[in-house]
What does this fold into?
Amino acid sequence: MKHLWLTAKLDIVESLRARWFMIYSLVFGGIVALLFAFGLTESRVLGFIGLSRLLVTYIQLSMAILPIFVLITTVRSVAGDREAGVFEYLLSLPVSLSAWFWGKIVGRYLVVFLPVFAAMAAAAGWAMIKDVEVPWEMFLYYTGLLAAISWCFLGIGMLISTVARSIDVAQGAAFLVWLTMLLFLDLILLGIMIQGHVAPEVAVALALINPLQVFRTAALMLFDPQLVVIGPAAYVIFDYFGGPLFKIYALIYPVLLGTLSATGGYLLFRRGDLP
Amino acid sequence: MIHFNHVSKTFKRNQVLDNIDLKIELGERIALVGSNGAGKTTLIRCLLGEYVYDGEVTVNGLVPRRERTKVLQKIGFVPQLPPPLKMPVSQLVGFAASLCNSERKRMEDVAQRLGLDLGKIARLPFVKLSGGMKQKLLISIAMGRDTNILVMDEPAANLDPDARHIFFELLAERLQNTTMLISSHRLDEVAPLVNRVLEMDRGKVVLDDRVAEDTSLSGKLACRLTLRRPEEAIAKALMGWGFRDTGSGTEWEGMIAGPDRLRFLGVLSRYVGLLTQISLDEIVRSAGQ
It folds into this structure.
């Protein structure tokens, strides 16, 4: 366990000094700052008012940015470290492969999740100072959703990094995975599939296994119980599962997918050449 | 101690190690030489448990890949190319000391002997250090802990003559209880350090030879040179070796580390037309030799 934390700490320090982390933090901090600057908390659209409107906009933007950011930075740094000889040296030290791999994931997880959470927490803090009502239940659930989706894409990123031996291949694969999930969002490909008379079960199953879609449905569900804006597959899912059950599924499924991907990555990592 | 038993390694149909059989005993100092692509780095990575391979590698009966932490606890490694780590020097030392169950102070002491003040560079990112500083730091980490195997890839390539001498002294202090595997492209770089030479070519050991141990690792040579005329280029080279001018640019004296004599003569060979006299006198021999 000591080695795992040492590795996690090492990864955190390496990430904090990396340029990608600075950009990453600026992007999420910047989003919240811009949303405040444009007076989003004072407007009313589709019944979203105050901080709840800011949060729903933030979570939508996070859905677009967070997965690709986590995927690309993870695969770049892990595959890059391997190519640059970092693995050759650090893995010549007496650290077990499990402590190394999972330590790296833990460190990286803290680094990718905390800026996203901190931006949201800062928004809530600012709202409290400005006497704007903070929807705490929504805040907590969104924190859970962001934590789950960060873990999910981190796990997928680690799996891709292990399989792909070079930065170029890893980046290309990461982008492809993200694009595929994006295309299978309810409002894009699923809409077309349903229009093209694909069996509804297939569309619903795709919506349920696509972590981006799960995230999106769950994020919007808190706002729009009538499901005016969430799309056809999500509507069926919501109708079938009901709100509370789907809320739990949206937290558990991405965590499970991320854990399975990371475990697959670890097994491959342990079995193959390290540097 | 170290046993390579029919070890082969293939990368996408390209056989890099071809049925290597090798036994290395405690106290042996081995030069692993060969051209690029001969298989030296792959052999080292198999020993460090970083590659999977056909055959078997054991270190004191343990398989590095299966019992990594136990095996690597006893191996100090200095790579040829320092890793581009962004972490501060102090954290790298702390990380290595914690993993190796060693004390940071021991690594700092070795660095101090090599002329590297860790206190001054503690906050600098490792990647920002000069090539020589990186090399000294990696040597300090490898030697500032309890190991009985040292695996070093061109370890002294970036060191200045003083640091090279200290480095040879550090190796000399471990002669009895340490096995050393020193990889290099050129035999003359490492020949004085070793008592066995393994030459690799296309994945095979093509030469396995013993070397006479007449050179003391910790010994020094007093050197005097007389030049035909003062010349800026050789003056610069000699000052780089810590020599001092004792006669208007034509008389020079200085000290050379015993194992560096071949390297030093190699440098002098570029100015052989200028040399009128040269003397090398051994002034120190270690107790054991």
Summary: DSSP finds ten helices and 13 strands in chain B. The radius of gyration of chain B is 20 Å.
